[in-house]
Backbone:
């Protein structure tokens, strides 16, 4: 009787966990992240729900373990996190650089961020000790893919989707059908790329890319119309997103996973090659390659290259030299009023973004910085990403403390200033430092390397299609994090990453153990 009751409780916990994972896209709807909502509550309600649910489930999971002594290392890890947190907070409080006041340090925000960074670890731990089967994995991934994809597709068709990129309009100006009816000659790229109702295009694109190998895996493994439909919807949604990661990434992932499939058919011989399925997948690939060439990504521009070329065309060597001499004279005479006047009247000549010059890092508070920026080659100063790196580097330079390299200047400081580098790991290097990366993010790499090593080492038993696919998904997370940013900090991505790592760890280490 007690055993039945225990099994029933375990089943309830597993079902709640599955529902929580499937509902993640709903928790990333932009309405939960508006300034009005966050200012009223203090934090996004979605983040609070996630933290509370995961904390409770983590505690339940730990309390149910039979062999808790195997997990005593958790207390050591918690101690390391606590020590880092104390040092990081102290470093942030004692930061005393002469920078704009908008870059402020919040202890509450910093603690909240550190807790957020540990949520994926907790998800991986919970998953590891749940009885996750093939069917559970399929339901979670395919259901999540449907929710993500259909929100983007439906909102695109009826034109209530948010634009993926900042634009003059909040919502898209044309849907997928209008792409083929002259929309590109009427509207800018920004008015066509759509992210559905989700908070951020970068993180949504990263999540779709991470889940795609698993969707393809299920489509190959089973003859299921539901899986095929999920794959088709996911690719359509990724093309609609209009980001390079989504629009180009789906095709690259499709090719790589298909090559892996052929390996497991003809070399590892885990699967029997199915010609009919291969033909269907090839048709899907070719059709969507054609649609991709007619999608928003085709009208996208690498804005840095465009403006660099424009500046080179419009500026003769004589003009460039005159500008350099003028800036050099301003630096020599150190007349602040003249320098401010020059920057105000000429920032657009150098293709510098107005919001950075006047608001995000005001020229009035650090005019020498902007004069130095104007002297840089166009390739190093034009574009949002260059501006992010230059401003962040300036803040670190003004701090002039060696400790910032190890403890960072604070996530809250850079987010409050609204200048946050779109390149994960580099962003964290500045915000939480090298020690922070090791303590709060190192578990991703440790788990990935251990799993990869054991898969290769145990070629006969562990080198299986599913394990390779899961490793590929985690690898894609690292790749997109570096390319686009807004991945390692975003729970919509890292919660799924933690779940995938948990399944992978379970596949490799726990199959024959009694827990």
Residues:
């Amino acid at each position: 009787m007690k055993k039945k009751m225990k099994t029933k409780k375990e089943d309830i916990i597993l079902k709640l966990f599955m529902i929580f994972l499937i509902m993640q896209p709903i928790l990333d709807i932009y309405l939960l992240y508006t300034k009005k909502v966050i200012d009223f509550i203090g934090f996004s309600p979605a983040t609070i729900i996630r933290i509370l649910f995961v904390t409770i489930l983590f505690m339940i999971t730990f309390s149910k373990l039979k062999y808790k002594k195997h997990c005593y290392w958790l207390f050591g890890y918690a101690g390391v996190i606590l020590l880092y947190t104390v040092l990081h907070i102290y470093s942030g409080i004692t930061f005393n650089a002469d920078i704009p006041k908008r870059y402020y340090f919040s202890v509450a925000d910093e603690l909240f961020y550190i807790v957020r960074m540990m949520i994926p670890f907790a998800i991986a731990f919970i998953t590891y000790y749940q009885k996750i089967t093939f069917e559970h994995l399929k339901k979670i991934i395919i259901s999540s893919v449907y929710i993500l994809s259909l929100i983007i597709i439906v909102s695109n068709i009826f034109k209530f989707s948010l634009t993926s990129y900042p634009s003059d309009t909040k919502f898209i100006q044309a849907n997928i059908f209008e792409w083929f009816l002259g929309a590109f000659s009427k509207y800018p790229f920004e008015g066509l790329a759509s992210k559905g109702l989700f908070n951020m295009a970068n993180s949504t694109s990263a999540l779709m890319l991470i889940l795609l190998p698993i969707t393809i895996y299920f489509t190959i493994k089973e003859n299921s119309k539901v899986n095929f439909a999920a794959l088709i919807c996911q690719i359509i949604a990724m093309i609609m997103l209009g980001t390079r990661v989504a629009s180009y990434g789906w095709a690259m992932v499709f090719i790589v996973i298909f090559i892996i499939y052929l390996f497991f058919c003809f070399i590892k011989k885990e699967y029997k090659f199915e010609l009919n399925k291969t033909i269907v997948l090839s048709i899907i690939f070719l059709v969507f390659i054609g649609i991709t060439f007619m999608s928003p990504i085709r009208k996208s521009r690498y804005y840095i290259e465009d403006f660099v070329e424009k500046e080179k065309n419009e500026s003769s060597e004589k003009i460039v030299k005159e500008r350099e001499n003028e800036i050099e004279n301003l630096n020599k005479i150190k007349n602040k009023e003249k320098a401010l006047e020059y920057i105000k009247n000429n920032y657009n000549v150098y293709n510098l973004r107005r919001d950075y010059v006047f608001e995000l890092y005001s020229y009035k508070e650090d005019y020498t910085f902007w004069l130095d920026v104007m002297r840089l080659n166009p390739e190093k100063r034009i574009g949002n990403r260059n501006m992010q790196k230059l401003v962040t580097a300036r803040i670190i330079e003004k701090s002039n403390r060696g400790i910032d390299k190890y403890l960072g200047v604070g996530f809250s400081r850079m987010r409050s200033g609204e200048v946050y580098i779109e390149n994960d790991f580099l962003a964290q290097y500045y915000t939480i430092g090298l020690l922070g990366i090791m303590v709060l993010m190192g578990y991703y790499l440790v788990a990935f390397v251990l799993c990869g090593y054991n898969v290769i080492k145990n070629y006969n038993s562990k080198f299986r299609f599913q394990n390779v696919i899961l490793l590929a998904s985690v690898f894609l997370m690292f790749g997109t994090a570096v390319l686009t940013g807004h991945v390692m900090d975003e729970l919509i991505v890292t919660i799924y990453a933690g779940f995938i790592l948990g399944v992978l760890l379970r596949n490799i280490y726990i199959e024959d153990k009694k827990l």
